[in-house]
Amino acid sequence: MSVRIFTGRSYTRIRSFCRNSTASKPYRKPLYKRDEAKKLRFYIADRYVTLLTKYETMLEKRFPSAMRVYRRFMDGIKDFYYDTKEYLRIVRYLNFKDKGLKDLSRQEIELYQKIPKDMIKIAPFLMVSILPFANYVVFPIAYLFPRQVLCSHFWNIQQRNEFGIMEIHKRLLHNRPVFRHLQAAVPCLENHELKDKWKGILASLGSGSHPNPTEILACKNLFMEKPFHIFYLNRSHVKHLLQMHNMHRMWFRKSRLSERAIILQALDRAIVREGGVMKLSTDALRYSCVLRGLNPMNLSNQEMQTWLSNWIWISNHVDKNSLSLLLHCPILLGYNHPNNWRLIYAKK
Predict the structure, then answer these.
(1) From the CA atom positions of the chain, what is the Rg in Å?
(2) Does the N-terminal or the C-terminal CB of the chain have fewer CB atoms within 10 Å?
């Protein structure tokens, strides 16, 4: 077997031949980089998006109720997420910037007051829904019992109106027990200089009318000491007062009542700062009335504005020692309101 040995000159000629042969071949792009392939990919993607759009339209036609629930749930998640982020921002603002409720707008204070309860209410639903296959159970439950399982972010307009009326009705049922406690404390005022004025207010409420704001403020001192200061209220009185303000009856009852009064007063002052009740929209007027214990159903804007103006006038004359007076204003200003009575007895 013989082995051919290339000299330096021969090796150079071979390299030159190979280089020329390679250079003579045209360059070919990979298949996926060609213009035809790009056009094909764009076409497939466009058809896929079109198919998804048509599929969604088809689902809306065949399963309209299910799609409405799905959209409402997705919108609710977005709204709840946004409000929760806003609430955390407000908490950081209050805690780390040495600010108070007086530095917040009306809408921020309403959010600060409302979101914690919504977070507690919806937490079980959100935690269970992330478990494997749990959606097949929790979503039907949420659809059947939205008031019990979900918060207002997930309700449609009809549900918000219906559930709002149910909530205010439940609260109004505690008006009479609170009024009875106010009556029962009269013997404790035997030698008090405001006894006759207070008895006149109770007589006015008992006869189906309301005292005017000036008469109410004349008895402010009764809510700064025994028997109507928050820390002198008996257990049953506190329980019904909590439920009248839509609060739970568990821990720190009297402290939470004081905090609620502070928030109500901060809201009243924010309304004044932002131009008064005349600047509030119809929805804002309704929410403000509900929060303060008045059923706004079928009331005109002017009627709601008048009622809120009386409330705010009293609130502006309340200080930290007489916050209990503000907590009892749903009785003093709204106990005999025709809208409240119609709602109570219509349900019965």
Answers:
(1) 35
(2) N
